[in-house]
């Protein structure tokens, strides 16, 4: 079975834009089932981003996701080092602010790429590749160069055979 690692934006955009918790109940029930079956996971850095706001999404995550859903990233330092090396090789492309943001220890993006790299997981994100960008490193770009598979929400659901 494929396992997908979820970006913060999977939850945030679903909640705020596409699938509100009070309207798209079947969506969130399916996310809960996928989490319980271990088909989807995320990391501690994503948890920190989601839990910044004391809102419905945080409450849903706390009550519906398994206790081990958000994986500890301290064990993937070697893969994170590979992501840092990739990033530092892009100093002529990206502005320093973009590099600093991507490598910020509290930001999930580089850690998600590293976790996917370390465990051979497919990363699920709403971000779209922007290989010529200067101001922001988009998750698909290091994934492309480092061999980490990625997809969007619908691609993940299709792969998992989820229908609503």
Decide which structural class fits the backbone: alpha/beta
Instruction: Give the CA-CA distance, first to last residue.
Output: 20 Å
Radius of gyration: 16 Å
Overall spatial form: globular
Uncertain stretches: none
Strand order of the largest sheet: 3-2-1-4-5
Q: What do these coordinates show?
A:
By secondary structure, this protein is an alpha/beta fold. The protein is built from nine helices and five strands. It starts with a strand and ends with a helix. The radius of gyration is 16 Å and the shape is globular. It has a five-stranded parallel β-sheet. Helix 5 crosses helix 7. It has a single domain, classed as Rossmann fold.
List keywords for this structure.
164 residues; alpha/beta; Rossmann fold; five-stranded parallel beta sheet; 9% strand; globular
Give a brief description.
This protein is α/β, with parallel strands linked by helices and 164 residues long.
Please write out the topology.
Elements: E1 4-6, H1 8-18, H2 25-36, E2 40-43, H3 44-50, H4 56-64, E3 70-71, H5 77-88, H6 96-103, H7 109-119, E4 122-124, H8 140-146, E5 150-151, H9 153-160
Parallel strand pairs: 1-2, 1-4, 2-3, 4-5
Helix pairs in contact: 5-7
């Amino acid at each position: 079975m494929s396992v997908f690692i979820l970006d913060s934006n999977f939850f945030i955009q679903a909640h705020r834009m596409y699938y509100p918790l009070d309207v798209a109940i079947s969506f969130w029930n399916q996310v809960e089932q996928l989490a319980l079956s271990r088909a989807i996971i995320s990391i501690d850095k994503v948890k920190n981003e989601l839990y910044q706001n004391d809102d419905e999404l945080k409450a849903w995550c706390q009550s519906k996701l398994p206790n081990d859903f958000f994986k500890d990233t301290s064990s993937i330092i070697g893969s994170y080092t590979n992501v840092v090396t990739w990033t530092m090789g892009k100093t002529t492309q990206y502005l320093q602010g973009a590099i600093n943001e991507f490598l910020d220890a509290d930001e999930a993006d580089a850690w998600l790429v590293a976790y996917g790299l370390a465990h051979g997981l497919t990363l699920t994100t709403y971000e779209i590749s922007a290989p010529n960008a200067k101001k922001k490193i988009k998750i698909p770009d290091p994934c492309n160069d480092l061999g980490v598979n990625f997809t969007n929400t619908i691609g993940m659901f299709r792969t998992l055979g989820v229908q609503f």
